[in-house]
Amino acid sequence: MPAAQHIERDQDLAMSSDELLQAQLELYHHGLAFVKSLALKAATDLRIPDTIHRRGGAATLSELASDTGIHPTKRSNLRRVMRVLTTTGVFSIVQGKGSNDHAGDGAAYYKLTRVSRLLVERSPHNLSPMVGTIVNTLCWTSLLKMPEWFTQGQEGESAQSHSLVQLANGCTFWDTTKVDGGLFNDGMAADSRIAMKVLLKEHGGAFGEVKSSLVDIGGNHGATASAVARAFPHLKCTVLDLAHVVAAAPASDILTFVAGNMFEYVPPADAVLLKWILHDWKHEDCVKIMRRCKEAIPAKEAGGKVIIIDMVVGYPVTQPNDSIEAQVLLDIYMMGSDGMEREENVWSLIFSEAGFSDYKITPTNGIRSIIEVYP
């Protein structure tokens, strides 16, 4: 390359002093983002939100340290963790406690925000199990292998033998869920309780118009199906999952549990529900699952449909940027466990390849959408 072209390209890299410092700040902010995740997990594991709640909604650093068993020599370090979590909005900090007995004492008190209220164990909205599901060693070690993984692989190699999780851990993601002490199942159940409470309230029409029966595929111990059955008592709800999952399911008077493999058979029903299932699987696997679903439901004219609760990345285009960021971050997270989040054109291709004729997307205020797919 001629010297002049080198000079011209080097000039493209030039920045003013202000630009340079701002760029450095942004780079460090991106690089240190993982610290927020680990601080959040530490606070959740130490049950700091529960401590604040038990203390009437506000607690000093000393009270937090005492109630959570922090060693006296580590209290100053706890303050550093709490400083991260108040700066990022997980907790808030105020001087004095406000309207209670400690008002005006000048001490700093930590309080719950709408985020940390989701981490109180006795709350009906408790999402603390999901923190451990997201921030776990398996997925982190898998994603750390991305540079190596991107440069490996041969034509014809099986997807499983060349997945990120296989490269990093020598096993599949599903292998780990069998020995994680129920952590994954607890996280999914917590997510279902909150998601379904809101979705059934705001978008219940997708379920209310189902004639009489619904099968929840991969429904684990029935958190999602139970919510549907209680909201719509006219529906006979069945949960399909693997034999070892069904064997551990609690007894229920509103659900029927069926042991089986969704790649082989789906029990007949007016509608099939797939909540956060297809994002775990590759394209060709999703097509297979959807074909089994199509075999299980009646024609569109008779009310048959598949209800998918999952992400449609970037849909609608008017959604807030933090929602889009959460979607694309979750997509990379899913890549670590060999899954993916999808844009509308990819969903459409899956549906057409599986033999479906039409679909309707209903976005929610969260990061997921309801997709109704018709045979």
TrEMBL record:
Q: What pathway is this protein said to act in by its record?
A: Aromatic compound metabolism; melatonin biosynthesis; melatonin from serotonin: step 1/2
Q: Which reaction does it catalyse?
A: N-acetylserotonin + S-adenosyl-L-methionine = melatonin + S-adenosyl-L-homocysteine + H(+)
Q: Name one GO biological process term.
A: methylation
Q: Give the enzyme's EC designation.
A: 2.1.1.4
Tell me if Protein biosynthesis is a UniProt keyword of this record: no
Name the Pfam families on file.
Answer: Dimerisation, Methyltransf_2
Q: Where is the O-methyltransferase dimerisation domain?
A: 29-121
Record's protein name? acetylserotonin O-methyltransferase
Source species, please? Triticum aestivum (Wheat)
Name the gene that codes for it: LOC123102064
